[in-house]
């Protein structure tokens, strides 16, 4: 039996593991895909203290991976599918095995929402798809910081970028707004939604106007997130709000802690995830 099992190896899960390991606890991380979570896919990690000037999600992810390695923290790449609380322990079943722990830190984070237009093939992340983007007309659906950042990255390679936002203005920070305004190849459509595909080279918007090109249009989607909370539904004593957990870091279930983007919170950034993980790792260790 492990002292603490951490589900998810994004910034919050890694932070929790580092702080618990430093307190002499026997730690295991369960991660379904790759260390880093969503942040590992972004084109640039911005506004986090100490990152390099041109820090990509991949380079940041590799730093997290290296930290776990030199701290000798075990990571098992399996998908957790259920959590059961017994009197003095938790039983976690994955797609490959079963594990037991005295305490659990749930840091499984979130996933990006999909475009609800079935006939349109869409992507989330442009990093690694630079050759695909070259000389294309690209639509990015969304107006938040994430959408704006990825739209700016796409504009380095694409011939033309159309940002489609359903609000009456972009919701991103001023830094990104200014760069978008100054760009020569970014066009912003506010109070609009993508509603259908007329053809591979024509996309219809909610106002009735279309975005057309001579070649296939690529569509990227950054319209918010959903919490990875499916496996929590059999647990009692806490509520979900739009798939996110309504709880403090130390939950009402004895021994269960939540950290990072899985929680209902007003700000979801690397810094807030790391803060959650730090607190969860320390509190879980102190409770043993």
TrEMBL record:
Q: A GO molecular-function term, please? A: oxidoreductase activity
* Cited SUPFAM superfamilies: FAD/NAD(P)-binding domain
Per UniProt, residues of the FAD/NAD(P)-binding domain are: 2-276
Pfam families, from UniProt? Pyr_redox_2 (PF07992)
Keywords per UniProt: Flavoprotein, Oxidoreductase
Q: What is the protein named?
A: Thioredoxin-disulfide reductase
Name its species: Peptoniphilus porci
């Amino acid at each position: 039996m492990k002292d603490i099992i951490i589900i998810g190896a994004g910034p919050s899960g890694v932070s929790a593991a580092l702080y618990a390991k430093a307190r002499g606890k026997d730690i295991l991380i369960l991660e379904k895909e790759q260390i880093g979570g969503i942040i590992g896919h972004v084109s640039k990690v911005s506004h986090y203290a100490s990152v390099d000037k041109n820090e990509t999600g991949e380079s940041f992810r590799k730093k997290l991976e290296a930290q776990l390695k030199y701290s000798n923290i075990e990571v098992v790449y399996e998908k957790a599918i259920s959590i059961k609380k017994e009197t003095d322990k938790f039983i976690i079943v994955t797609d490959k095995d079963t594990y037991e722990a005295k305490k659990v830190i749930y840091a499984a984070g979130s996933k990006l929402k999909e475009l609800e237009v079935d006939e349109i093939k869409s992507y989330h992340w442009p990093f690694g798809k630079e050759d695909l983007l070259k000389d294309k007309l690209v639509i990015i659906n969304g107006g938040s910081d994430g959408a704006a950042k990825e739209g700016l990255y796409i504009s380095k390679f694409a011939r033309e970028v159309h940002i489609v936002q359903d609000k009456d203005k972009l919701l991103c920070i001023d830094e990104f707004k200014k760069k978008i305004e100054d760009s020569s190849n970014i066009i912003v459509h506010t109070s609009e939604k993508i509603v259908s595909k007329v053809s591979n080279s024509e996309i219809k918007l909610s106002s009735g106007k279309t975005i057309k090109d001579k070649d296939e249009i690529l569509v990227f989607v950054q319209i918010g997130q959903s919490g990875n909370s499916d496996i929590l539904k059999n647990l009692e004593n806490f509520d979900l709000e739009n798939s996110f957990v309504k709880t403090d870091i130390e939950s009402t279930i004895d021994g269960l802690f939540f950290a990072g983007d899985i929680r209902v919170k007003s700000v979801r950034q690397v810094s807030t995830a790391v803060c959650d993980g730090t607190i969860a790792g320390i509190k879980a260790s102190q409770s043993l």
